[in-house]
Amino acid sequence: MNVSAAIAARRSIRAFTDRVITREELEPLFHDANLAPNHRLTQPWRFYVLGPEARAAYGLALGHRKARKATDETDAQRIRQETSDAHRAWPGMIVVSMTLNENPEIREEDYAATLMAVENLCLSAVAHGLGTHIRTGAIMDDPAARAAAGVPEGERIVAVLTVGEPLEMPAPKTRRPATELTHWRD
Ligand SMILES: Cc1cc2nc3c(=O)[nH]c(=O)nc-3n(C[C@H](O)[C@H](O)[C@H](O)COP(=O)(O)O)c2cc1C
Fold this sequence. Notes:
single chain, 4 strands
């Protein structure tokens, strides 16, 4: 599959088959992610692959946050349990973090490079017959979520990916054409 075909076929996948994704399947994806362009070759990205227990703990951390909107404690308990169970059931989950350089300019470049690594990973997944969904949000700074993923002090979580065999191929989202967003200057 060439890169344009992989770009065209990539979707945010919300529904996966229940086939568990193995370490052997994920390693080529990390290899490709690690080839992302990166000023000064700082290689700021770190990948944490969460097994079922870690996923459930991460989901519980998320569930605690979602449960703040619960109507009562029974509802809150249901939300926590369902969110944790849903995470345990994912066929694969990867937390992507970056190291935090003390120089703000390098830190910003490193953030950009880490998201390039994420895109490499997502495209590589497509080329290997897998699908991904990137998620972000305040949960990434939650101590319980960080602990679930085993992300140490001195790193920032920048994206959380689910990965698996897509159950279906969602229709592409409507986008403005690139011609509308491109300005050619003499
Ligand atoms: C940096 C980043 C953060 C994202 N965060 C979320 C998120 O928190 N929740 C979510 O449902 N999708 C998230 N997405 C996925 C986008 O919503 C998705 O890429 C967009 O709707 C386009 O759909 P497509 O990926 O299928 O083309 C994120 C994507 C990126 C690149």
